[in-house]
Write a structure and sequence with these properties.
The chain is an all-alpha fold. It has four helices and no strands. 66% of the residues lie in helices and 0% in strands.
Length: 89
C-alpha cells in the first residue's frame, strides 16, 4: 500500500508540470510549429535516441526559443537545428 501511495504522489506531482511549449507566445507559435520536427530530430540525435534526454532537450529548446526577442535570433535558433521551413514574417 505504501508503494502505491508513493507512486500516486509521483504521478500527481508530474501532472502539475507545465509543458514549456504551452507557454510560447502566439506570435512565436507558427515558426515553432513549422520547425518542431527539426527540433525533435536535433534533440534525438544529440541524445543518441534516449527518450528522456530527448524530452528534456525539447523542453529546454522551447524555453530557449520562448526567451528569444528578435526574429533574427529565432531564425538563427531554428537554422542551427536544421530547420529551413520557416514561415514568412
Amino acid at each position: 500500500m505504501k508503494s502505491l501511495s508513493i507512486a500516486l504522489l509521483a504521478l500527481l506531482g508530474c501532472s502539475g508540470a507545465t509543458n514549456p511549449e504551452s507557454t510560447l507566445p502566439a506570435a512565436a507559435r507558427p515558426a515553432w510549429d513549422a520547425c518542431h520536427d527539426s527540433v525533435q530530430r536535433w534533440c534525438r540525435e544529440r541524445n543518441n535516441g534516449d527518450p528522456h534526454g530527448t524530452a528534456q532537450c525539447e523542453d529546454q529548446a522551447a524555453v530557449s526559443y520562448r526567451d528569444l526577442t528578435t526574429d533574427e535570433a529565432r531564425e538563427t535558433f531554428f537554422r542551427e537545428r536544421g530547420c529551413t521551413a520557416l514561415p514568412p514574417h
